[in-house]
Amino acid sequence: SHFTLIGFKNDDILVVVSLTAMLINICSFIMEQYLLEQRLQIIKIYYKRGESLIQTLTALTPIYGQHNRPAKSTIQRLVKKFESTYTLYNVYVPRRQRDARSVKNIAAASTSIQDDPNLSLTRRSQLLGISVTSLWRILQKDLGIHPYKIKLTQELKPLDHFKRREFVK
After folding, report:
1. End-to-end Cα distance, the chain
2. Full-model pTM
3. Residue 130 to residue 57: CA distance in whole angstroms
4. Cβ–Cβ < 8 Å for 108, 128
5. Which residues form the DUF4817 domain (predicted)?
6. Residues 6+ apart with CB under 8 A from 61
7. Rounded to the nearest 5°, which phi and psi values hold at 8?
8. I need a labelling partner for 166 at 20 to 30 A (CA). Which of 21, 56, 102, 152 fits?
């Protein structure tokens, strides 16, 4: 399907921009994910064709089709990754260890609640040295407790309902 995006310039000239062209430009930044078998096939063809990108693209055209074959940059990245890591698997990138919801913090939050259940979330997070958001997650996800704030309201008297109805009239 083909969509068009319609807009106006300052001099009221209608400008029609093809949305499909915009999507193609956006999608070109995203590397396509190929199955391991497909990656192996691309690498084999690349080396069989004498490490030539053009010949590799020509050989991949009957397999993937003219418009669905991997781009030059995709083949280059795949070969570069294969030659540097000697694998076709995605390389694991180590991430920062999350330690806010550790067993120690969960135990500390649980004891804190048993000691003083009326303490506010903000004050409790300051005492425990845990961020408010992390403490909120510990209480809800790990301990099954839903923190709330008790709000003081004015006591309703018997005449209040009558006065409210009179005020509305």
Report:
1. 58
2. 0.43
3. 54
4. yes
5. 36-85
6. 69
7. -125, 145
8. 152
Contact 121, 136 (CB under 8 A): yes
CA-wise closest residue to 56 among 64, 66, 45: 45
| One-character DSSP codes across 89-149 | SPPPPP-PPP-TT-HHHHHHHHHHHHH-TTS-HHHHHHHHT--HHHHHHIIIIIS------
Contact between 153 and 160 (Cβ < 8 Å) = no
Over the stretch 23-71, which tens digit does the pLDDT of each residue have? 444 444 444 589 999 999 999 999 999 999 999 999 999 999 999 999 9
% of the chain exceeding 90 in pLDDT: 56
Q: Among 144, 148, 122, which residue's Cα sits nearest to residue 135?
A: 122
What does the alpha-carbon distance between residue 55 and residue 86 come to, in Å, rounded to a whole number?
A: 23
CA distance 59 to 69: 10
Looking at residue 154, its pLDDT comes to 82
Q: Where are the domains of the chain?
A: 1-30, 33-93, 103-142
Q: DSSP secondary-structure letter at 6?
A: E
